[in-house]
Design goal:
Elements lengths: L9 H16 L5 H22 L32 H23 L3 H23 L8 H22 L6 H27 L2 H20 L26
């Protein structure tokens, strides 16, 4: 909201005091007396105004508008884009999924399910981080993003609601037991999904190791793995064997 600049009021008070003192000390009977007082008032006004260094309205800076909650404050919370719309969507969905896992972990009291959720959260974060560094691996997690992850969250949400119902009916107890039994399988599947992202890299490393070993052996830098190892027994050219 804009505010008008404050004006210096000291000159006005000085003129008022002048007229009060002048009226009390000097009788004002003729128009000349009033003219003289007016002239003196102008001089006093200008002198006091100069002493006070009153700023003109144009010299004051307008008040700065306070930043709104949705402008600068919201900027840091926005996730930076990578320039790849497909990757940006996966990372955004992944962040939402991990946040939902944290919420479920806080709500569910069962320590076994809670531990499984924490493990799912850790593995999922590593999956999304690997895809961030290697976007070419996005096709490898399509089924994970489209089915396995949302279905797992659906099961955990159902477990959360039913466990909070406060009763032990047949349907609720059976469903809770099924979800508890399924969670270990889900954790193993998530871990296997993460491991599969390193399949091509592991193959490349294995190939590089094999080629390196072969070249080093060919140059005589190491023993040739294709040649049989020499025996530590001393050679016996005469073929004589001693038996006891």
């Amino acid at each position: 909201m804009e505010t008008s600049p404050r004006k210096c009021v000291a000159p006005f008070y000085a003129v008022a005091v002048l007229w009060l003192a002048g009226g009390a000390l000097v009788p004002l009977y003729e128009p000349m007396h009033y003219g003289l007082m007016a002239a003196v008032s102008v001089v006093v006004f200008l002198a006091v105004n100069a002493l006070c260094h009153c700023a003109s309205p144009g010299d004051e800076q307008p008040p700065q508008a306070a930043p709104t909650a949705g402008s600068e404050a919201a900027a840091p919370s926005q996730a930076p884009t990578t320039g790849n719309p497909d990757l940006d969507k996966i990372l955004k969905d992944g962040q939402l999924a991990i946040s939902e896992m944290k919420r479920l972990d806080a709500n569910i009291a069962d320590p076994g399910i809670s531990a499984d959720i924490v493990r799912l959260e850790q593995v999922s974060a590593k999956i999304f981080e690997e895809v961030r560094h290697s976007p070419e691996k996005i096709p490898q997690i399509r089924r994970f993003m489209d089915y396995y992850l949302p279905t797992t969250l659906k099961l955990l949400n159902s477990y959360d609601r039913m466990s909070a119902a406060g009763i032990s009916g047949e349907n609720i107890s059976t469903t809770l037991s099924k979800v508890e039994g399924m969670m270990r399988t889900v954790v193993a599947a998530f871990e296997k999904q993460l491991d599969s992202l390193y399949g091509a890299e592991a193959l490349d490393i294995s190939t590089d190791i094999t080629v390196l070993e072969t070249m080093m052996a060919r140059e005589g830098l190491t023993e040739d793995p294709l040649k049989p190892a020499k025996s530590d027994q001393p050679e016996n050219p005469d073929g004589i064997h001693l038996e006891l």
